[in-house]
Each structure stands twice: as C-alpha cells, then as structure tokens.
Amino acid sequence: MSFQKGALLGMVVGTLVLPLVYLGWTFKISPMETVACTVVKHEVEAVDQLPQKNFPRNLTTHYEYQYEGLDYVSSSDGDFESKEKLELWIKKSPIGSQHDCWVDSNDPTKLLKFPFPYTVFYGAILGGVGLMVFCGSWTLSMLFPLGFGRDPKTTIEKISQSDVKNRIEKRFQASLKELKLLGFKKYCFYWEISVPFYLISNFVVFLAMCAKKEIIEFRSSLRIARGYPLLELPNQGTFAVVHAFESQFLTLFTDGTLLITGTEGRIKSFVDENFQVHRQGATQTVEAAWGQHQIRVEAFKAEGKRLKENINFSDYADILTIVECILLANNLFRKTEGCDGMMG
Fold this sequence. Notes:
Blueprint: H1 3-29, E1 32-44, E2 57-67, E3 70-80, H2 83-92, E4 98-104, E5 107-112, H3 115-143, E6 155-158, H4 162-171, H5 173-181, E7 185-193, H6 198-201, H7 203-211, E8 215-219, E9 223-233, E10 238-242, E11 247-252, E12 258-262, E13 270-272, E14 277-281, H8 286-302, H9 313-329, H10 337-340
Parallel strand pairs: 12-14
Antiparallel strand pairs: 1-2, 1-4, 2-3, 4-5, 6-7, 7-9, 8-9, 9-10, 10-11, 11-12, 13-14
C-alpha cells in the first residue's frame, strides 16, 4: 500500500471509525432512552461562591419526567461564560417548558439534556488522536521499513520449545497440509526477530499481524519475534515459508541467484541484478504458485544454472538479509557495508 493510500485509510479510521466506536461504546455502557421532561426550577451559582469574578457561572436546571410509569426529578449542569449566554439559556428553557431529555435505562435517576454533542466532541478528540497515531506510524513504516538504521538487522533463531511449535503448527495447519502434498518436509520452526523499536516504526503493521493472529513474542528494546514454519524440498535447493500474509517458495542456485515466488499479488514482482534476486507472484493458491515457480526454475536450469542442493538454516538467514538489503536500497537509503558482501 502506498503512503497516500495509507494516509487516506488513516483519515477514515481516525475521523469516522474511531468516533463511531466511541459512540457505540458510550451508549452500550450507558444505554440512553428519550423521555419528555419539564423544567421546574433554575439555580444559578451564587456570586459569593465565585473567586473574585461573576463569570463563568454554573446553572443547575431541574426537570420532572416519567420513565416506565414512575415519576422522577433530576437535574443537569452547565457553565456559562457570560451573563448574555446564561440569560439566553433560561429564556429558551423557561419554567414549565418541555424538552427531549435522555435517561440512563440502567439508572433512570440519571438525566442528560444534550448527550449527543458532548459525545461527538470527545469522539472527535479520540478520532483525531487515532488519526495522528495511524498516519504517524504509517509514515515511519514507509521511511524506516526495517527500523531506525541503515544495516539489515532482522535476525532469526530456531525454536526449541514444544508448546510454541504446537501453536505455530496449529495456526498454519491448512497451509502446511497443502505444502506436504506438494512434497515439502518440515525443516524447522523459527523466530523472526525484528529490529529494535519496531513497535514504534511499524505499529500499524503490528496491529495487522495481531488481526491475522500471528504467533508473537515481545522482546527487549520494543522488538517483536514472529513464529513461522520453514519447510524444505529435499535436494532441490528450495525452501517454503508460510507467513500470515503470504506463502513463499525460495530456490537458491550455485551462482547466487535467488528465485522467490509468492501468493500475494499486492507485493510487486521485480528483478534486482545487484543481488541476483527474481521475485514473482500473484494473488493465487499455493499450488498455482508452486507450478509457476517450477516453470521458472526449469527455465533457469535451461540457461545453465545449477541448484544449490544442500541448503541449510544459514542459507535461509542469508536470504532474509538479501531481501532486507533490497528494501534498504529502495527506501531512501544507500547500500551499506552490511549489504556489499551479499552482492553478486
């Protein structure tokens, strides 16, 4: 998603969705019902109770009303900054006049004369804060996709805890079943550990991960670790990795060429000659992506390229570093020393 689209989405979320959520939350907690109420008395705050000046003044208006056949008397308060505004209010609500009021159905003794404007006001504040957080986080994720640094820093480590492995396997069981039918074998489960302060620079992405029910652990320095399964096609130089957003096939050749095929069409295809990476993909099934991947592998073999048959976890770590280097090279940063040794 482009920054412009992200900002537009942020405006929608911040200015529309969050206030509506706030409204729903308010009226769910305190369900309000409309009743006809009659003004019976106005009480203006006494001047001798005010500190050194006559305004602002507090006005308490008392009302009588019926709710479910029972009579109630309640009141509402308001502060007025000037005598004119105070007198105008009393003029619009003279004693004996009837108005629409709102009562809390859980406690009918609670009365509110004008609940909606105040709710909208505070909802708008919440929406504005949501807008700033969303757009600010999205801007940071565009400028610093890998965190606040210039070198690739995402690390991976194998998972040894059985309970964590079981959680990951359960989360991705449908995709794992598909890959096993294609001939892939489970290689390991691993943590992909983000750069420091990832939760600040990519907070919106983190929320999307939570929505996708990714297996996440929090680490020091505001980092997160995401758990994924890694599979291998024995003796074919090919890994398959399953993420919440996409499944990928990755094949390494002896000359350093890397072929990546994914199932997410929104991630653009590209060829990076510096790193010898060929990325292709479309919104497609795992089986269709594997078929597309095999066709391209055979085309490379016809050009004389040979598969790197014996691949290991270290090779997969190098693949992630290469992908990060490409992101850095295309996001306001120049290539760095950490990437120079990875180039073909």
